Amino acid sequence: MPLMTTKPMFDLAYGGGFAVGAFNVNNMEITQGIIEAAAAESSPLILQISKGARKYANMIYLRHIINAAVEQYPSLPIAIHLDHGDTVDLVQTCINDGFTSVMIDGSHHPYEENIAVTKKATDLAHANGVVVEAELGMLGGIEEDVVGLDAAEYEKNIEKFLTDPQQAVDFSKRTGIDSLAVAIGTSHGAYKFKHEAKLAFNRIEQIMKTCPGLPLVMHGSSSVPQEFIDLVNKYGGKMPNAKGVPEDQINMAVTKYGVCKVNIDTDLRLALTAKIREVFATKPAEFDPRNYLGPGREAIIGMVRRKMHVLNSAGKADAVNKHWEKLGKPMPKYYVKK
Ligand code: G3H
Ligand code: 13P
Ligand code: ZN
């Protein structure tokens, strides 16, 4: 059962010209859509769960849904990751829940406080065989549990918010993290840019130079494809001026600049919502949830398959499994004890 940490994945992604997609799960249909896509593309994958997802779905349900996915596709390399963990207590809870990877996001704290909370979380996670992602710099955008800056303010002051390459070395050395989420011009949500959509590629390049060997993570990486915005708006939605990171820039960040993990949530929400809106608008008599959630799930499969090509992770599942075996099939303590 290749449930694993992200280490075997990032070992190959680093310098390997691909990134592993980390997709947010909130319910059964979303999880099934993601897993079906990964199976169809033979791609490694990270299923990530936010504090908001835990609150919405109840971790007992999410755990069983994820276990079902792992059981259905036992040869898919899958990591279960906490997205934007904000406290050491939450990290501990997720370790107890069987997560193989956690994020501790102290980026909104002053620098020394970010180091202190990240170091605590990292020591705890490592003692349990779990890997850690942390964040340095500031992302824009507003999500329920992830509050950033609005697009206009972010773009105006962008230099001030980007991850500092020198600080990144100090941060990673003093905390012992396994991967680092960097601010390089992306934001959370569907309204990422007021003006031109542009990533700070030179910043990724500088951080890769100052922190060799450290896998970099890009949050806020949805592309908000125009055809989905058009569908939403056509069928009664209201998402004017939505704008994401163009897929060619995501692909470049991965294949040319070496980003190893790419976080996507908004595009899944968009695919599901656009499809459900279409069913409601074109079949107003429909009231069987299976007949709108089903097409919504299909839309998620299509969206995630598309991402796996943008990230160049399609076809990499076997190689990751072999590498995991070569490493001695490392598993967090939770699974070893079980
Ligand atoms: O980065 C945030 C993710 O999109 C999760 O969002 O906190 O609304 O679950 P959420
Ligand atoms: P998007 O809002 O661009 O999908 O980003 C999701 C994310 O970063 C989750 O951590
Ligand atoms: Zn994020």
Q: What would you note in describing this structure?
A:
Helix 1 packs across helix 15 (317-326). Helices cover 50% and strands 12% of the residues. It is an alpha/beta fold and 338 residues long. The model has no long low-confidence stretch (mean pLDDT 96). An 8-stranded parallel beta barrel has the order 1-2-3-4-5-6-7-8, surrounded by 8 helices. The protein is globular. The chain is built from 16 helices and 8 strands. Strand 6, helix 10 (201-210) and strand 7 form a beta-alpha-beta unit. The chain has helices spanning 7-13, 28-41, 51-57, 59-72, 88-96, 111-127, 151-156, 158-161, 165-175, 201-210, 226-234, 247-255, 266-282, 290-310, 317-326, 333-337, and strands at residues 20-24, 45-50, 78-85, 101-104, 131-136, 179-182, 216-218, 261-264. The relative contact order is 0.17. The two termini are 14 Å apart. Residues 24, 83-84, 188-189, 219-222, 263-267 line the site of 1,3-dihydroxyacetonephosphate.
